[in-house]
Design goal:
8-stranded mixed beta sheet; Aminopeptidase; Alpha-Beta Plaits; single chain; alpha/beta; elongated; 11 helices
Length: about 400
Amino acid sequence: MDNLLLIKNLNLKFKNEIIGFRHSIHQNPELSFKEYETSNFIEDTLKKYNINCSRITETGIVAVIEGKKAGKTIALRADIDALPIEEKNNLPFKSKNNGLMHACGHDIHTASLLGSALILNKIKEHFSGKIILIFQPAEEKIPGGAKALIEKGILEKYKPTAILAQHVQPDIASGKIGLRAGKYMASTDEIYLSVTGKGGHAAMPHELIDTVLISASIITGLQHIVSRKANASIPTVLSFGKIVANGATNIIPDNVEIEGTFRTMDEVWRKKALKLIEETAANIAKTMGGECKTRIMHGYPFLENNEALSEFVKEQSELFLGKKNVLPLDIRMTAEDFSYFAQKIPGVMYRIGVGGSSKNENSFPLHSAHFNPDETVLEFSSGLMAWNAIQFLETNPI
């Protein structure tokens, strides 16, 4: 039996275990950098199947599966943290932790990688080289778990020559995947503006320095950075989602707090734009008699899928799933800390469909309290990762 059919059969053989992994993880979600029980579950599962693993950070786990002979090394990565969302699904394996939910599919990612571990461990006599499985904490929280693992020396210790990851996508039907070579996901920085003026009675604006009006002017003015300063060929987004002005209908507050996000796909422009945001906000406030202080929390770099590795994954995925089930993708302005890995070594993140067969089925987006991915994806997602990994070890794609 060839490796392709063997891996597909093993994925189906382990299907119930993999779905069980997902249910256990989904029921017990934990926030970024606090995934203690999740890590214990992963570790216990790997040890149960006699798979060598160790901790690299407090909640980060690395497993190693070695083939019959020495060879190349490839890494596979899954994120394990959940979100501060109260689940509104009525599932038998609904979250048991109030206010917490796996609403971004990390339970699927982790269960799938555990399934890949089971498959690869079964067929390790069929390949040469080494496969590193990274169960990474804290994808959802800046500065990100990937950065922490890299700083701990994971790449130097295990020396992978490439890394792969998969991410669920509800607008792709289960049974299909999506992939884009080159620039794919945006960088992300958090913008915090503090506007100070002179509050007082709203009926006497001539006696005040109106922080609310200044804030409105700043928000509007900053959009000119995107529309007039950004190169039209560089995707750029600046959005503000939180404004706190604790006044009233007839009260102008002394201070207004504004929070937003800046995203782009060019590191030189990113640095320049962040400086422009700070300078523009301060200048607008000053011309109106107030003051604006800016704090920027630098987040993840943009994600660029290695061109040669992307072509390899596309070809191998078409062999595994069929050509019609591998779709091209557009860029996304969402962000992923997998980008830290992809900036160090050739990397590819592809999307696995978890949408139902109709638009009304499993159609809630990521980060929704109703997000309910089609878990039939687990019938092939583990095998697909395992297949790409061993094919990488057996060929020379990059």
